[in-house]
Amino acid sequence: MHVLFLAPEVWPFKRVGGLAEVAYDLPRALAALGHKVGVVTPKPRLSQEMEQGLERLDTVLEVPVSWKRHLAEVYRHQEPSGVEVYLIGHEHLFDREGLYGNAYGDYEDNAERFIFYSRACLELARTMDWRVDVFHANDWTTGLVPVYLRTLYAGDPCLKDAASLMTVHNLGNQGQFWHYDMPLTGLGWEYFVPEALEFYGQINFLKGGLVFADMISTVSHTYAQEILTPELGRGMEGVLMARRDRLAAVVNGIDYQVWNPADDYRLAANYDRHDPSPKARCRQELMGHYGLEDGGGRPLVAVVGRLEDRKGLDLITAGMERFFEVGLNLVVMGYGEDHYHVALGELAARHPGRLGLTIGFDIDLAHRIMAGVDMLLVPSRYEPCGIHQMQALRYGVVPVVRDTGGLADTVVDQRPGVEGTGFKFEPFTMEAMLQTLDRAKQAYDRPQEWRGLMQRAMAQDFSWQAVAPRYEEIYRKALELAGQRQRA
User: Fold this and answer.
1) Domain check: are 351 and 386 in the same one?
2) Do 397 and 241 contact (CB within 8 A), yes or no?
3) Residues 386, 21: Cα–Cα separation, whole Å
């Protein structure tokens, strides 16, 4: 199959969250199965070194947005895997500090920016004369692509037989804009109705994708059930219930060539599940990096990722003093909401030797943290999939997670009669979190039990090689449904 994978962020060009890794890893796994895979992404502001690694094509796209026609440059990066990454260059719309916004909030022209990007993906396929089998759209920024395939581009010889898959990585972000932006889409007002793009008087890009896509997928089995409920459906539960026969679930994977403690060059020592003992050297190195006190063998707990309410940072910051009473040291690395940056900075200043803090994301340090800590804490309000807990498992780090979404699907709770890979709690409360951390600490104090936990964690297989065949099945189903639609 010829698959075009559409994502606004792709590692290493731009990273806001886990989608960037998915957009890098999944296409490579699909290419390894023999498919022709291209990735299309907006060209962000890049370093000079990254610019030099791009090939500028002679192709210039004319992308309609309302009455205007934007001219866009096309750049290509050839991966050794055979995947071709196409970056759509538009200085005015995408050469900016942030992808979605800056310190003052979302960009006011986001509707125009991502209408342009969605149409540019289709214009690229037309201009290059590709016969794409499946357009794999990801999240709201590409939600209009399935809409356009069924409307403005339905009669195009290159695109008329193409199928679409709409993958929801986070239903919390839907791309809602005021109705006066409707002319920018190029679609008639007949599509501003509840059966199409209209959502409580606004345009909803993701809703368009959910309504018009041939298949819909999300990134864990539990989350696929959760989004059918009013609690986590975010107003889309009715749309999803109506199309649940087309809703599939695939747990994300991680790249075990990149995330492998046995040959990770960033680590103070390499180790595997058969002999995890060298991990102690990685722990010592990390504690030295942050100036942490061992304190008689306190467990070292990491919090990695977005510092925001959804990730349960309110529980963490409010309960920090009690973390130390339980007998834990912490390492926090991430960025997000400013008030958490301030709160964590104040806590680190009050507790030197107990809390190590990095505001920002450093991929090399992320590897060293996973190798050096004992536990990973992920108390998310909701978590469509989550990647960090799978990375932790691979590095023999025991996850302590809330029992929701992909966390529920990837971590087995350690309890009497069940040999688990981590610890889970269900109520979103500080007490439940602290009780579960205490339960994990008790296991940590029993070395034989803890070693078994580590080794079972490291034996799990969440590789993209295990995941990619499931996407093959979904693509085939999408093509079958698209064919039925064409014949109807």
Assistant:
1) yes
2) no
3) 11
Query: What is the pLDDT, as a whole number, of residue 297?
Result: 80
| φ, ψ dihedrals at 42, nearest 5° | -65, 145
CATH number of the domain at 218, please: 3.40.50.2000
Please check if 15 is assigned to a binding site: yes
Q: Are 312 and 339 in contact (CB under 8 A)?
A: no
SS3 407: helix
Model confidence pLDDT, tens digit, residues 103-112: 788 999 999 9
Is the model's pLDDT at 326 over the cut of 90? no
* pTM of this structure: 0.93
pLDDT band for position 102 (50/70/90)? Answer: confident
pLDDT, tens only, 369-394: 999 999 999 999 999 999 999 999 99
Please give the tally of structural domains in the chain: 2
Domain coverage including residue 153? 2-253+465-487
Q: 406 and 286: one domain? A: yes
Per-residue pLDDT, 486? 81
295, pLDDT greater than 80: no
Question: Long-range contact list for 403-408, CB < 8 A, 24+ apart?
Answer: 404/222, 404/226, 404/380, 405/220, 405/222, 405/223, 405/226, 405/380, 406/219, 406/220, 406/222, 406/223, 406/251, 406/252, 407/378, 407/380, 407/383, 408/220, 408/222
One domain for residues 330 and 392: yes
User: Which residue bears the tokens 């299309």?
Assistant: 40
